[in-house]
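Posting for a labmate who doesn't have an account.
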Amino acid sequence: MQPGNDVEIGDHVQMRKGHPCGSDEWTVIRTGADVKIKCHGCGRIVMLDRFEFLKRRKKVIRRLDQDELLLLRAKE
């Protein structure tokens, strides 16, 4: 995998196009062959294949550190 093409659960990302609700910020809630993201504006959940997600992602705004990631996984 090329550098910059990694995606992790809990990443706060900005997409190239805005959602119809007006927000362009999303949180990654599942990874794998597909990536599931949740809109910060309306809460809508969308699943994209990994290639499409990486193509549409503009930048990673915030990445969870290890402690936050462990807390997130403990809640599941």
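Reply:
Got it, the structure tokens are right above this. The helical segments are 50-56, 66-75.
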